[in-house]
Amino acid sequence: MKILHAETMQQMPIGSEYHIEANTIVTPLAHQIASERRIKFLSAENDAETHTQTRFTPQLKKRGNAKVIAIGADHGGYALKELLLNMLNSDDFEYTLVDCGTFDTQSVDYPDFAYAVARLVAAGSAWRGIIVDGAGIGSCMTANKVPGVRAAMCYDQATAVNSREHNNANVLTLGAGLIGANLAKQIVTTWLITEFGGGRHARRVDKIDQLDRRFQR
Length: 217
What we know:
Helix content: 40-55%
Strand content: 15-25%
Number of helices: 9
Shape: globular
CATH superfamily of the largest domain: Sugar-phosphate isomerase, RpiB/LacA/LacB
Strand order of the largest sheet: 5-7-6-8-10-9
Radius of gyration: 18 Å
CATH architecture of the largest domain: 3-Layer(aba) Sandwich
Number of strands: 10
């Protein structure tokens, strides 16, 4: 099995074509760069395209005009992601869910899926984002590289409340290897229902956003 990374797409001429071999996995970032550079994917065999779509195309579970939550994970966070999806898809919640993958436990790179979630939030296509990996740290670092994203790695309900009230976090990252399923559910629920405090906190968040804009290229 071959993985097509973003670096390969960056080296391709603009407007060119790339032939995808059977059983090739195209990362979300590679898809994004290919789109920006108008690179067309050609598949020699249909199963390559099908496999790519199954593993990496976001899956939408729409509920009317409900707020959109994008959720993603690497292989280490896959099981917890599925559990959280089931919870958020229950009658207790009213959200439209976008599953950005991964869709199985095969080893993948967490930055690809953290970016897939973060870019939806930054573009305004998702109201909030949730990312799960082994520790929650790497995905948090990745998401915060995307302008407009304020990601917070939370490990209990107190940090979930703080990240929303004080920092207006729009992306939550979790470490599946550090917290249990019940605590993860509590963190997510608390994080989603906690409002931004505004006031003095708004002034400080504005300074974060100013730095974000200052270093955009």
